[in-house]
Amino acid sequence: MAKVFIYPATSLILSDMVTRFGHTPLGSAIAIRERVQTAGLESAPLQITPEEPKKGLHWAAVEVPSGVRGRMSLYGPMVEECDAAIIINNADLAFGCMGCARTNELLKFLIRQKDMPKLELEYPGNEEEGTQFVAAIKRFLTDLGGKK
Amino acid sequence: MTEYNPANVGTVTRYVVVESYNVTPSDVAIRAYEVAKGVMIKENCFGLVIMGKEEEVDRVIAEVRKMDPAHIFVKDRGFPPGDARRCRASLGGARPGFHGIEFEMGLLPYISHALEELDKRDAATVPAPVRKHSARRLDVYSLKKMIDAQEP
Question: Which of the listed CATH numbers 3.30.70, 3.40.50, 1.25.40, 3.30.460 matches domain A3-143?
Answer without folding.
Answer: 3.40.50
